[in-house]
Amino acid sequence: MTDMYALIQRRIVDVEEAQRRVRGERLKGRKIIFTNGCFDLLHAGHIKLLGQAKAYGDVLIVGLNSDRSIRQIKGGCRPVVDQHSRALAVAALLPVDMVVVFDEPTPERLIRALEPDVLIKGADWQGKEVVGAELVQARGGSVHFVDLEEGYSSSSIIEQIIDRCA
């Protein structure tokens, strides 16, 4: 019997391992997709985004904000779920091939290192500056915006919990 937990853990890699795997996948002619986020409380919106993202290529890499970078972006009360647990949860999802935790506020360094063919963001990013878009497009890649599941966000879930328990 295969140890599913071990298989899931193998999807969580550092930048160097992700680069090595990307090189191998490119030799097979596979298209590399990248998206990123905090994925603090995993919900239906995340599942929809990742499923749609995978449709744009072959290998889906998720850049996951570290605990430290989330605190920089969202404040000291976040994240609710630690980065190891978040990485495992995201890595366990069918569309996801790799998860790489990054410590900066944006995934620019990671995008620069992995050189994805496709960059995916949620539709809420349309009309805004998307970090890494120029890098991907300069290499001949594309940026796509996918539909979001209405009413889902980690922040709104946290607010609902606070309201209900107050």
List keywords for this structure.
166 residues; alpha/beta; five-stranded parallel β-sheet; 43% helix
What does this structure look like?
- The chain starts with a helix and ends with a helix.
- Helix 3 (about 45-55) links the parallel strand 1 (about 30-35) and strand 2 (about 60-65).
- The model has no long low-confidence stretch (mean pLDDT about 90).
- It is α/β, with parallel strands linked by helices and about 170 residues long.
- It has helices at about 5-10, 15-25, 45-55, 65-75, 85-90, 110-115, 135-140, 155-165; strands spanning about 30-35, 60-65, 100, 120, 140-145.
Straight-line distance between termini:
46 Å
Give the biggest beta sheet: 5 strands, parallel
Rg calculated over all Cα atoms = 16 Å
Low-pLDDT segments: none
**CATH architectural designation:** 3-Layer(aba) Sandwich
- What letter string, H or E per element, gives the SSE order? HHEHEHHEHEHEH
Strand line-up in the sheet with most strands: 3-2-1-4-5
Please write the CATH class name: Alpha Beta
List the total number of helices. Answer: 8
Mean pLDDT across all residues, rounded?
90
Task: Produce the secondary structure layout.
Blueprint: H1 4-9, H2 15-27, E1 32-37, H3 44-54, E2 59-65, H4 67-74, H5 83-91, E3 98-102, H6 108-114, E4 118-122, H7 133-138, E5 142-146, H8 154-165
Parallel strand pairs: 1-2, 1-4, 2-3, 4-5
Summarize the structure.
With 166 residues, the chain is of the alpha/beta class.
